[in-house]
Design brief:
The protein contains 7 helices and 6 strands, in the order E-E-H-H-E-H-E-H-E-H-H-H-E. The protein has helices at about 45-55, 55-65, 115-125, 140-150, 165-170, 185-195, 200-215, and strands at about 5, 20-35, 100-105, 130-135, 155-160, 220-235. It has a 6-stranded mixed β-sheet with strand order 1-6-2-5-3-4, sandwiched between helices. It is about 25% helix and about 20% strand. It has about 260 residues and is of the alpha/beta class. The protein is globular and about 60 Å long.
């Protein structure tokens, strides 16, 4: 018998379990659409920017029925490095004409089945062709697994247990996790070297500069921000301070 149920995906349970109350635990995560720059169609920055400029993020946010919001930054609000400065990608005339379906991958642990349809439809309209979806299940080497499929893009969810922007950038520094196919040794070095900066203000500025470079290359598009993790607590249980910190940092000895 459980006292606390963690919905994990942030939206996995649509109905409140009997005998439980819902607690919104601040634990921001963000979904991204990552283009595979290793494919001929997406090696061109202009092609990448054109596609990402056409993705209707508002319709994806609406499908989350109040559980998500439109991203204002490469990082979610509350993460070191956040700055509400995200600008839409500029539309060009360089959109490639695919003569095949657009292959869209989902990292299984990131996006529940009920939330995938709106993303698929938005990408279909942006690409102008049918979309074929595939599921990536390896949560550690998902970049390798995705690139091996020859897919066009992948939807991934990123979060930080320490509310630090580094964990949102780390994917591009680890070849096994990198879904972009954008091989840039300097970018990887900048991400890794950021951890040598002790001053949080300076480190946040470096994070923002790296994120700006990722945006300029049109590699990743923040799709939705999910500010809270949905957790259900038994009504008879008192949990002072619950929801004020990420769930992995809550001292369960305080629960009565």
């Amino acid at each position: 018998e459980f006292d606390i149920i963690d919905a994990t995906f942030g939206d996995a349970l649509d109905n409140l379990p009997v005998g439980f109350r819902e607690e919104g635990v601040f634990d921001p995560r963000q979904l991204y659409l990552s283009l595979n720059a290793g494919l001929p169609a997406w090696r061109s920055r202009k092609n990448r920017c054109e596609l990402l400029s056409k993705v209707d993020r508002e319709s994806i946010v609406a499908a989350y029925q109040g559980l998500a919001e439109l991203p204002r930054s490469f990082f979610p609000r509350g993460i070191l490095g956040y700055s509400a400065d995200w600008e839409s990608f500029e539309s060009t005339t360089a959109s490639p004409r695919l003569d095949r379906p657009f292959v869209l991958a989902f990292l299984e642990v990131s996006v529940p089945l009920v939330r995938r349809a709106s993303i698929e439809e938005s990408v279909r309209r942006a690409a102008g062709v049918k979309v074929k979806t595939i599921i990536i299940r390896d949560a550690k080497r998902f970049g390798d697994q995705f690139r091996a499929t020859g897919g066009d893009a992948m939807v991934i969810g990123l979060k930080s247990n320490y509310l630090d922007g580094y964990e949102f950038l780390l994917m591009l520094a680890e070849p096994a996790a990198d879904t972009t196919g954008f091989h840039d040794a300097n970018l990887r070095r900048e991400i890794v070297d950021s951890q040598q900066i002790n001053d949080p203000t300076q480190r946040a500025q470096v994070y923002r500069e790296i994120a700006a470079r990722i945006r300029r290359e049109c590699l990743l598009l923040p799709l939705v921000t999910i500010p809270h993790r949905r957790v259900f607590v038994r009504v008879s249980l008192t949990t002072p301070g619950f929801g004020e910190v990420p769930i992995n940092e809550y001292d369960l000895s305080r629960a009565r």
